[in-house]
Amino acid sequence: MSHHIIEAEDLHYKYPDGTSAIQGVSFRITHGESVAIVGENGAGKSTLLLHLNGYLLPTEGALRIGDYSLTKETLNEVHRTVGMVFQDPDDQLFMPTVFEDVAFGPMNLGFPADEIKKRVYDALETVGMLHLKDRPPFKLSAGEKRAVAIATVLSMSPNILVMDEPSSHLDPKTRRKLIALLGTFKHTKIIATHDLDMAVDLCERTLIIHKGKIAADGPTRELMQDEELLEQCSLEKPLKLQCCSLCGKVSV
Known about the structure:
The protein is an alpha/beta fold and 252 residues long. The chain contains 9 helices and 10 strands. The chain has a single domain, classed as Rossmann fold. The chain has helices spanning 45-51, 75-81, 98-108, 113-126, 142-154, 172-184, 196-202, 220-224, 227-232, and strands spanning 6-14, 20-29, 34-38, 60-65, 68-69, 82-85, 160-164, 188-192, 205-210, 213-219. The longest helix is centred in the middle third of the chain and has 14 residues, at 113-126. The model has no long low-confidence stretch (mean pLDDT 90).
C-alpha cells in the first residue's frame, strides 16, 4: 500500500534567514506504523512535520508522500493523503459551529452535501463529539477542541495522520482519553511530542531528532531506556519507565 508510505531521503531544510533546521534526514514509515518524533526544543521536529503535509518543501533531498514525490505540483494529492493536526486547535477551528468546521475540508474537496453530512457525523462520532455539532468552537474546552480538530482531519479520510504535540495543555483525564482515542485509529500515525510517556503508550517506533539530524531510530521502549542517548539529546526517561523510589519497580 504505497499510498500509506512516507519516505525521506537526505532531507535538508534551510529557513530564509539561513537557519539550517533539517540536516540530512532519511527514514521510511510504512502502512499502519505509529511513529513518535521526539527531541528537545529547536531540534527540528515541527519543521520536519511541516514537510509531511507539504506546508514546507525541502531545500535539498527528496520526500515521498504516499504515491507522490513532494513538489509544488503534487501538493493537492499530498493534502488528500496526509491529515495534519496542529499543536494549537485554534489554528484549525475558525467556523461558526463545530459542524461547519468539520465540514470545511470535505466541502473544499467537492463532495456532495449528503456525503459531507455523513463524513461530519462519522468523524464527530468517532471522537465522541457529535453532541457538540452545533456548538461554537470558541465555547469548547481544550480537550473538546483537540477532539474536534482531529475530527476535521478524519472527515477527509486521510491515509496518514500527523499530529503536533496532541497532548499539550490537556489535563490528565483528558490526556488519557485522547491516548485511548488515538490508540483505536488504524491510520499510519506520526506524532511529534514532548510527552514521552504518550510516545511509549502509542508508538512502537520513535525517531529522536537532535540538532536537525536523526540521533536514533528504533523501538520506542528500547530508546526510552537508553539513558546515555536521552542525556545526549537533552531528554529524560519517561516517568512510566523510571523506577519507583519506594518499591524499585518500573510501572509497566
